[in-house]
Amino acid sequence: MRTVELKKWGNSLAVRLPKTILSKAGVSELPTKFEITVNKQNEIILKKQKEPESLKELFQGFDYKKYWSDWEKANPGKSKEEDWGGPVGREVF
């Protein structure tokens, strides 16, 4: 077990993780994202997020029908197409 200190870093607090601990956890690339939770014993738990291997995995659980339904509620009567304005310069359409 290794002891680390919680220190002030700007307006936040930070813990510096030793390289030996990170290598044991398989962290070698930056940036790396972690999920952080606190259990009932007030222990802080970091879990390294797994990067999605495909678009299918990335959007797993995404409900596009709910997404567009929510969008319609927030933007009633508005077109889903983005208006980029008229041509500027020598564009030919």
Automatic annotation (TrEMBL):
Matches recorded under InterPro entries: SpoVT-AbrB_dom (IPR007159), SpoVT-AbrB_sf (IPR037914)
Q: Does the keyword Transmembrane apply?
A: no
Q: Recite the UniProt keywords alphabetically.
A: DNA-binding
- Compositionally biased residues, Basic and acidic residues: 74-83
Please verify whether the record's keywords include Nucleotide-binding.
no
Molecular function as annotated in GO: DNA binding
Q: Which residues form the SpoVT-AbrB domain?
A: 4-51
Which segments carry the region annotation Disordered? 74-93
Any one Pfam family here would be MazE_antitoxin
Q: What is this protein's name?
A: AbrB/MazE/SpoVT family DNA-binding domain-containing protein
Organism expressing this protein natively:
Lactobacillus crispatus
